[in-house]
Design goal:
- Helix 6 runs antiparallel to helix 11 (312-335).
- The chain has helices at 7-10, 18-78, 82-98, 109-119, 165-195, 200-243, 251-268, 271-280, 286-291, 293-307, 312-335, 341-348, and strands spanning 100-107, 142-149.
- The chain is mostly helical.
- It has a domain at 7-58 and 161-348.
C-alpha cells in the first residue's frame, strides 16, 4: 500500500516566506543575465558569420533575378531564330556555368576600339571609323552587355544608408547568437524558480512539453529559412518588376523580415503540442477537434496571415504545414496513450 500524503505535506519542508521568494527570484535573474552576457560575448566572435548567413537567401534570390533579366536582354538583342538562337543558348550556358550576370552599358565605339587595340593589337580587325569623334553624341554610343560574376555585381550586394548601420546589424546578430546560446541556461533558471510552486504531476508536464516546444520552434524556423525565403523573395521581386520598381535592398530592413518570418513559423509549429495539452487537461477532446476541423482550418489561415508578412506566398507556406499539423495533432491526441490515473495519484501523494 502506498502511504497517502497530502499536497501540503509534500511542500511542508520547502515553504518560503515572501522575502525568500524575492531573494530566490533575484538570484535566478542575475544568473540568467550573466549567462546571457556570456552568450553575447561568444556571439561577438560569430556575429560576422551570422550576418553573412542571414544575407545568403537574399543574395541568392537577387542573383537568380538578374540571371532571368540577363536571359531577357540576350533574347532581345539576338532574336529567337536561326544561328542567333543557337548563339544565345551557348552564351547563357557559358554565363550560368561561370555564375555571371550582365548589365546594360553604353560606350563610345572609338574609345572601345582604342582600348581593344592596346590590349590585343594582333587580334583586333582593321576597322575604320570616321575621324570625327562620336563621344557625347547620343546616336554615336552603342549598347553592349557588361558581364560580371554575380558575387562581384554591386546590384546583388545589400546596402546600408548610414555609417553606423553596419555596426548596429553586427550587434543585433551578436545579441541573437548570445540569446540562442544562453536560452537553455535562461530557461533552466526560470524553471528553477517556478518549480518550487508546482505539484509533481505539473512538473511532469513541464519536463515533457518544454523540450518538444523548443524543438518545434527551431524546426519551424529552419523550415522558413531553408524552404520559404526564396519563393517568397521571387514573388516579391516579380511584383517589383511588374510595377517597374528597381530593386535596392537595405540590410536592416531585410534582417527585420528575416527574423519575423522564422519566428512566425516557430510559433505556428507549436499547434499540435497546444492541441495535445488542451486534450490532456480535459478542455477539448480529440473528437471535438475532428468534428470542427473546417472552423479550425479557417482559423489556421487567419493565424498564418497574422504571423507572416503581408504577402500570399509566406501565408501559403505557413498555412499548408499548419493544416497538416492540425490533423497530426488530432492523431497525437487520439493514439498517444494517457498515463494511468494511479500513477498520477502515486506521484502527487494521493494514491
Amino acid at each position: 500500500m502506498t502511504h497517502k500524503q497530502s499536497d501540503e505535506d509534500l511542500f511542508a519542508d520547502s515553504t518560503m516566506t515572501f522575502g525568500e521568494h524575492l531573494e530566490e527570484l533575484r538570484i535566478c535573474l542575475w544568473r540568467a543575465i550573466l549567462g546571457l552576457i556570456a552568450g553575447i560575448i561568444i556571439g561577438m566572435f560569430l556575429g560576422g558569420q551570422v550576418v553573412n548567413l542571414i544575407q545568403r537567401p537574399l543574395t541568392n534570390a537577387l542573383s537568380h533575378y538578374y540571371q532571368r533579366e540577363t536571359e531577357a536582354k540576350i533574347a532581345a538583342l539576338t532574336g529567337q531564330n536561326g544561328d542567333n538562337a543557337k548563339n544565345e543558348k551557348e552564351i547563357l550556358e557559358a554565363a550560368k556555368s561561370r555564375g555571371m550576370i550582365a548589365d546594360d552599358v553604353y560606350v563610345d565605339p572609338r574609345e572601345l576600339l582604342a582600348k581593344l587595340d592596346t590590349a590585343h593589337p594582333q587580334e583586333l580587325p582593321n576597322i575604320q571609323l570616321p575621324e570625327k569623334s562620336m563621344q557625347g553624341k547620343e546616336d554615336g554610343l552603342i549598347h553592349i552587355l557588361l558581364w560580371r560574376k554575380s558575387a562581384d555585381d554591386p546590384r546583388v550586394h545589400l546596402k546600408s544608408f548610414s555609417v553606423w548601420e553596419g555596426f548596429g546589424i553586427y550587434v543585433k546578430a551578436a545579441f541573437l547568437v548570445g540569446l540562442l546560446l544562453a536560452s537553455p541556461w535562461i530557461f533552466y533558471q526560470i524553471w528553477t524558480f517556478v518549480a518550487a510552486g508546482l505539484y509533481p504531476h505539473e512538473k511532469h508536464y513541464v519536463h515533457f512539453y518544454l523540450p518538444i516546444s523548443i524543438g518545434l520552434f527551431f524546426f519551424g524556423a529552419c523550415v522558413a529559412f531553408s524552404f520559404v525565403f526564396e519563393p517568397v523573395l521571387n514573388f516579391l521581386f516579380s511584383v517589383n518588376k511588374w510595377l517597374g520598381i528597381d530593386l535596392d535592398p537595405r540590410i536592416s530592413e531585410w534582417i527585420g523580415f528575416a527574423l519575423i518570418l522564422p519566428v512566425g513559423f516557430g510559433i505556428g509549429f507549436q499547434l499540435p503540442l497546444v492541441m495535445y495539452f488542451l486534450e490532456r487537461v480535459g478542455i477539448v477532446s480529440a473528437g471535438m477537434f475532428a468534428k470542427h476541423w473546417k472552423i479550425a482550418v479557417l482559423l489556421i489561415w487567419v493565424l498564418a496571415t497574422l504571423l507572416t508578412p503581408p504577402d500570399p506566398f509566406s501565408q501559403f507556406f505557413l498555412g499548408i504545414p499548419l493544416t497538416f499539423l492540425y490533423f497530426g495533432g488530432i492523431l497525437l491526441c487520439k493514439y498517444v496513450p494517457r498515463r494511468r490515473s494511479g500513477e498520477w495519484r502515486v506521484e502527487s501523494g494521493e494514491g
